[in-house]
Write a structure and sequence with these properties.
Family: Belongs to the tryptophan dimethylallyltransferase family.
Largest sheet: 4 strands, antiparallel
GO molecular function, one term: transferase activity, transferring alkyl or aryl (other than methyl) groups
Helix content: 25-40%
Keywords: Transferase
Order of helices and strands: EEHHHEEHHHEEHH
Radius of gyration: 18 Å
InterPro entries: ABBA_NscD-like
Number of strands: 6
Distance between the termini: 45 Å
Number of helices: 8
Strand order of the largest sheet: 3-4-5-6
Amino acid sequence: MASLITSNGVGHVVEALPILDEIRSDSEDRAFWWEPMSGTLATLLQANQYSDEAQRHYLRWFYKWVPPALGPRLINGKPYYGSWLTHDLSPFEFSINWKEKSRKKILRFTFEPTTKQAGTATDPINQLGTKEFMNTISKDVPGLDLTRFNQFLEATNVPSDGVDDAIAKHPPNFPRCRAVVAFDLEHSGDLMVKSYFLPHWRALQSGIPAKTII
């Protein structure tokens, strides 16, 4: 799979590793996310001069954990839940750390983990997705300590008996995200894990200003 990328106004053709042909999705939901994203990921890894070993490592890791955490595929062209992380309600975005002076830029991605329960009576505002995802990957990310993550998640959590009230007060077209996760893909093969918490749901429910919650 060859892709054309542009760097400093110059086009380059990069050839993705054969590993993309080796990975086969085991569900329609996973295939929906993996198929369009894998080519972009492979292209960005190669364009930013990751070693072949690092490329294979990140492609396998990404396939194992990320597509399943993006939830069900679109239904009739509309997001199953609707993340509001991006303008088109997609729960995922790639980025590159352009501040790096080296030609080997660090590739990053951010997304809001989602489950089949998101938007249902079980989890109306997707409070379970990020927690379940982080607990699941903790065994596969050496040194990942979730102590502070759990503290911030609890501080911004909306009690189950207050969710309906928070939804009623939520402004139209305002981002619905509760918490998102982000990863820096170091060239060494190590992952830097970050998380971001949005306190507005808790503020709407409790009446406590968002700045105070933070």
